[in-house]
Amino acid sequence: MAKLPILTAPDPRLKQKAKPVERVDESVRRLMDDMLETMYAAPGIGLAAPQVGALKRVIVVDVAREGEEPQPFQMANPELVWVSDEDANYEEGCLSLPDHYGEVARPAAIRVRYLDAQDEIRELQAEGILATCIQHEIDHLDGILFVDHMSALKRNMILRKLLKAKKQHALPAYSAAAS
Ligand code: GNR
Ligand code: NI
């Protein structure tokens, strides 16, 4: 397995729509395994393939807490086949928006259909943080970040800060000379 670099916003690759996987073959399984390793190392509770620069509809999730039995899910082509009328609010974070958090309302319970690592069709009913995390990851496959669910004011504030941090990181000599 290999730990992969995680893209941070703003990055055009995080705004693109990912392509469905035709079949979960050895290369998709390797991507799923690398993504789980990357997610655990971050650490995070979910990761979508576009966050590691792969524009494929693949996500991994594990919302088990430290000390609990791990509960990893590896999903290709995840699709919501049912969502509850009731919404739930969670304070969300994202490995591609480091150090920024915001409250997002999403359906409280979902049913997701997907291909597992063995290329078998499965369905999972989820609620709580698992339901929120799966929806957050499916959003990534459509180029949507959690800040896109917030007001333009909050979104732009966060994105401006990330852009500034990125410029300072990329051009330390220039920034120092310019300031
Ligand atoms: O690690 C993560 N935590 C999190 C918390 C609340 C709602 C969603 C998430 S997912 C995030 C990892 C990530 O960026 N996945 O795309
Ligand atoms: Ni995210």
**Helicity level:** 25-40%
Describe the biggest sheet? 5 strands, antiparallel
Using only C-alpha atoms, the radius of gyration works out to: 17 Å
Shape: globular
Low-confidence stretches: 175-179
Q: Could you give me the name of the CATH homologous superfamily?
A: Peptide deformylase
> What ligands can be seen in this structure?
ligand GNR, nickel (II) ion
| Strand order in the largest sheet | 1-2-3-6-7
Helix tally?
4
End-to-end distance, in Å? Answer: 43 Å
Count of distinct structural domains: 1
- Helix/strand order: HEEEEEEEHHH
The fraction of residues in strands falls at: 25-35%
Give the integer mean of the pLDDT values: 95
CATH architecture level-2 label: Alpha-Beta Complex
Which class do the helix and strand fractions yield? alpha+beta
Query: How many E-type strands?
Result: 7
Q: Examine the coordinates and then state which fold CATH places here, giving the name of the CATH topology.
A: Peptide Deformylase
CATH hierarchy, class: Alpha Beta
